[in-house]
Design a protein that fits this description.
Largest sheet: none
Order of helices and strands: HHH
Distance between the termini: 94 Å
Oligomer: single chain
Length: about 100
Amino acid sequence: MSVPDEYNNNPLALRAWQDGYEEGLYQCNISVRVTLWSIVVIFALLSLFITAGCDSQYRYPCQDPTNTNNPECKSPICDADETCTEYLIEVPHETKSR
């Protein structure tokens, strides 16, 4: 009983063929395809859930550069909860030349 060439590179199909299953290679190819598609679908769903929370909103209103002149972003109103623009955004200091 010679082993068909198509079973040489697939040990699962070879084992199924040796056990007497006529469609050993076909069944193993289907299970490999189902496994690969399952991995792709799971990866796509995970990527969707991970990026679902991403949004282009600011956590605090004073982080938005367009709100820096609003009264709630000026001292003393924002000092108590430290939501002033200078607390939330690192503003580079000007250096004076000598």
